[in-house]
Amino acid sequence: MSPKKFHLGWFVGFVANDFTGPFSPPDEPWDGKFYVEMAQSLERAGFDYMMFEDTVSVPDAYGRSFDTYLKHALWAPKHDPVPLAAVIAAATSRLGIIATMSTAFYPPYMLARTVATVDHIAKGRFGWNIVTSAQNQAALNFGMDKLPPHDKRYDIAHEYIDLVRELWNSWDADNIVRDRETGAYFAPGSVRAVDHDGEYFRSKGPLTTVRPPNGQPVFVQAGGSPKGRDFAAKYADSIVANPGSIEDMRKFRDDVRARAAAHGRNPDEIKILFIMMPVLGATTEEAVAANRRNITSDRAVENILAQFSFTTDIDFSQFPLDEVPPQDLTTDGEQSALEMFLQRGSGKTLRELAIDYLSPRVELVGTPDEVADRMGEIVDEVGGDGFLIYTGSNSLNRRFVAEVTEGLVPALQRRGRVRTEYGHEFLRDNLRAF
Ligand SMILES: Cc1cc2nc3c(=O)[nH]c(=O)nc-3n(C[C@H](O)[C@H](O)[C@H](O)COP(=O)(O)O)c2cc1C
């Protein structure tokens, strides 16, 4: 029996890349070239997509100041991924390009129009990572006092999706006739108003843009809560998730697939990619040593504490690194994340907790052949569907991209685990190919 094939994505932001390591790129990334060349490498390796995250605020939770975030270039600077996606689309021909846009901040009409425009430039290879946003600090940048509560954000997002779909559907498919004889550009009656008048949004329509090449762009989503999973199961072509243990991965995938079936969808239409940070070396020892260096450096520890301060709104800079933090910390932010991090009662110091948190339960550390074998085993145990490669922005450089695209991917290809060439032009078709 031939081995089960799986999909590959790469998770990145339009952010500062590695600027301190021995192999840090000499050039600034803000003209987009670094990411365009990276996209070309991913396309050569047959990746399904390159996915750009996005958030829209400069945090100040750690030390109640912007300084630590800006020092490490964490969350900021962060440039808008949508124009970059268009530039990447023009420099590639098969790779999917996903950009994150929030239903909390984009007016639906504007999002529908921008997404349709980029999807045409990409000839059906663009995708929208649908987020509902979780940072009140971002809400302040858009004239709101705070975000709506968690579950309501998803209720709003459901109507949002209905509306943007109505807008894309306000143009019929293949309605451009460009008839030289009659001088007609499009078929009469093939563009209509939508007259949407809902609980949260009103829009008359039609959209100004031609219908997206594939009817609608690829939808990506990352919901973890029951509301989030249900939302993803209803709409997503691909779901990205944090793995936890192999058992957690299997449960998550089974749950989302069951929810998709309950929505009347074929669960195989949804590809679930789990985030993984491979650490590769020419020998096992080299990879293990590199992994240890990655997770124990002062820089990595400060990074993770600053990140945690942001998501929990607890200022971790106030606690000494080599002492046990207070055991009674609580948050109105991400509660499950705080529980996992704190390991209450373990007696571990803050530094030890940070290092534990940086050590994923499912590791991919070794030679390309060893990691390729491990990835195959994981997919067989979980049932599918692939991996979203990631490295912290502080360690993203051309050497790491090459280790994956020139070492790991060929090892996966030799095992028949990933594609050796693209079968289709549209991203959705490539995702559904296996
Ligand atoms: C792989 C991954 C990527 C994500 N990317 C973003 C992002 O770019 N912007 C954002 O605001 N949230 C992002 N999130 C957060 C999710 O959109 C979502 O808020 C989070 O997973 C919590 O989901 P829940 O509210 O359903 O529990 C991401 C989450 C994951 C797991």
Automatic annotation (TrEMBL):
InterPro entries found in the cross-reference section: Diverse_substr_monoxygenases (IPR051260), Luciferase-like_dom (IPR011251), Luciferase-like_sf (IPR036661), NTA_MOA (IPR016215)
Transmembrane segments: none
Entry similarity comment: Belongs to the NtaA/SnaA/DszA monooxygenase family.
Domain Luciferase-like: from-to ranges: 34-383
Domain of life: Bacteria
Lineage of the species this protein comes from: Bacteria, Bacillati, Actinomycetota, Actinomycetes, Mycobacteriales
Name of this chain's protein: Dibenzothiophene desulfurization enzyme A
Keyword terms of this UniProt record: Flavoprotein, FMN, Monooxygenase, Oxidoreductase
Listed Gene3D superfamilies: Luciferase-like domain
GO MF annotation list: monooxygenase activity; oxidoreductase activity, acting on paired donors, with incorporation or reduction of molecular oxygen
Pfam families per the UniProt record, alphabetical: Bac_luciferase (PF00296)
Oxidoreductase recorded as keyword: yes
